[in-house]
């Protein structure tokens, strides 16, 4: 089983900026969201010492993972670059509104993630998340808490559940809920 969490709200999220491979700190709300996820995960895991926490190398995911680990009294956090957020190239760090204005009608509300001229592709994101999933023990033996990002979480859940590109990108990316991946099913868990 995998519990897949997105990092808590960041300053860039609050400002409406694309983060990509850049980073910004968690807001007070983001810290509260991470704490709530940690408390909720703790109610679902009777023996946390049997679980691994694996996080993206970006600071916002690492900070969220530390808060969750503290709630579970787990000391070690593993880092895996395959869980990193996509980069949107030259859009990283820019305001979404600025990019929308420049790109005009071609900037769609859905699917913008892979429309940047020099960003990561859907196929490469799907390949790295598939590689990560395949590197784990069999589903029945997994005891993983993964902390990642919005777009990467969408793609990873889609790969896990066998969804199309469109279905994958249409999924929610909450910062106040997380997902259980078990037996080929993806279940949303509220905090």
- The succession of helices and strands, N to C, reads EHHEHEHHEHHEE
Report the sheet with the most strands, covering strand number, pairing sense and barrel closure. 6 strands, mixed
**Count of helical regions:** 7
What is CATH's topology name?
Rossmann fold
Percent strand equals 5-15%
Report the CATH architecture: 3-Layer(aba) Sandwich
Helix content: 25-40%
Q: How many strands in all?
A: 6
Describe, in short, the structure shown.
The protein has helices at residues 11-15, 28-44, 59-72, 96-103, 122-135, 150-161, 165-169; strands at 2-6, 52-55, 78-79, 144-148, 177-182, 185-190. By secondary structure, it is α/β, with parallel strands linked by helices.
Features:
alpha/beta, 39% helix, 6-stranded mixed sheet, globular
Structural notes for this entry:
- With 191 residues, the chain is α/β, with parallel strands linked by helices.
- It has one domain: Phosphoglycerate mutase-like (Rossmann fold).
- It contains seven helices and six strands; from the N terminus they run βααβαβααβααββ.
- A six-stranded mixed β-sheet has the order 3-2-4-1-5-6, with helices on both faces.
- α2 crosses α3 and α5 crosses α6 (150-161).
- The longest helix has 17 residues, at 28-44.
- The chain is globular, with a radius of gyration of 16 Å.
- The two termini are 18 Å apart.
- The mean pLDDT is 94.
């Amino acid at each position: 089983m995998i519990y897949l969490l997105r990092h808590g709200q960041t300053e860039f999220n609050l400002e409406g900026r694309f983060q990509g491979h850049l980073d910004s700190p968690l807001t007070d709300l983001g810290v509260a969201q991470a704490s709530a996820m940690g408390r909720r995960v703790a109610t679902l895991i009777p023996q946390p010492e049997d679980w691994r926490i694996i996080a993206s190398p970006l600071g916002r995911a690492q900070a969220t993972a530390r808060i969750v680990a503290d709630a579970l009294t787990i000391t070690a956090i593993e880092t895996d670059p395959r869980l990193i957020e996509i980069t949107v190239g030259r859009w990283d760090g820019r305001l979404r509104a600025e990019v929308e204005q420049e790109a005009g009608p071609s900037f769609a509300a859905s699917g913008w993630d892979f429309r940047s001229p020099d960003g990561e592709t859907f196929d490469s994101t799907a390949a790295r998340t598939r590689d990560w999933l395949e590197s784990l023990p069999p589903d029945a033996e997994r005891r993983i808490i993964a902390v990642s990002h919005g777009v990467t979480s969408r793609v990873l859940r889609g790969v896990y559940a066998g969804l199309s590109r469109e279905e994958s990108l249409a999924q929610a990316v909450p910062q106040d809920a997380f997902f259980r991946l078990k037996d080929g099913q993806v279940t949303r868990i509220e905090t």
